Amino acid sequence: MRIEFLGTSGASPTPRPTCNCRVCAEARARGVPYSRMGPALFLHGPDLLIDTPEDIVHSLNRANIQHVAAVVFSHWHPDHTAGSRVFEALNLRGWQWPPQHERTPVYIPQNVQTDFEHWRGLAEQMDYLQGRGLVEQHIVPDGEMFVLDGVTVQPFQLPAPTANVYAFILSEGSRRVLIAPDELVGWQPPEALGRFDAAILPTGIFEFDPFTGERRIPAEHPVLTTEATFRQTLDMVRALDTARTIFIHIEENDGHSYDDLLRLQRKLTAEQPDLGPVMFAFDRLMIEV
Q1: Domain containing residue 71
Q2: What is the rounded distance in angstroms from the CA atom of residue 171 to the CA atom of residue 202?
Q3: CATH number of the domain encompassing residue 139
Q4: Which of 75, 109, 131, 271 would disulfide-bridge 165, Cβ 3.0–4.6 Å?
Q5: Which residues pair with 3 in a beta bridge?
Q6: Based on the structure, what is the number of domains in the chain?
Q7: Which ranges constitute the DSSP H helices of 69-180?
Q8: How distant, in Å, are the alpha carbons of 98, 99, 147, 150, 257 from that of 95?
């Protein structure tokens, strides 16, 4: 399996518009790997796109992706769905008559579909796109999976309190990858998940400065009830059986540049070897599993 990290930001891209903090100014001046687009991953081979942030058209162009065979959504949040108009860009052949549009299979876990029916008119958007012949919706019941070009994709629901959120187990032969695009708060990885060749997890928010230990987010801040912290994420890594871990969904608000994260990566390797190999992803990173 070959996985490309099209975008590795969190809810806001880096640089954030109008922001001139150290991290954003450097990202604006230097570009990748200091800059980050919205959260999306691409599995080459099956050509599966995971999530469509608002800048997904630009991410696909930047990566020179030539074919998107299917899309799967992890949850409804705008930073993962606001680019759903990408299906028009991919498939609409505006001046052909009669119409000869392409049609992209879209896989939606059943409880994500429930949220699509409630939030932001997402169900109506997908129905509109299907009505125009641009997508073909597949609602995936809990406990079921789908197969694309020899890769089995198994969605499973996480216990996030603010949305129905799914992670995915990707299997090809003996190779297995865990991808959790976002929202790990409250998750305790069960032993039954088995062994992974790689785990791709959201970083979590930095309640404490990872270098000094100083508290950065007040203990009473409500975000700590809805978002996993970085320390909690590390505990999840310890509970997983994974050959390596790659962190994604890196929040601009946490104030860490690409160089800061490289430094933190070295610190974790030296001081917490029980985590195994860990790294922070950056846009256009490609891994082989």
Answers
A1: 2-92+100-288
A2: 20
A3: 3.60.15.10
A4: 75
A5: 43, 287
A6: 1
A7: 78-81, 86-91, 110-116, 122-131
A8: 9, 8, 34, 35, 45
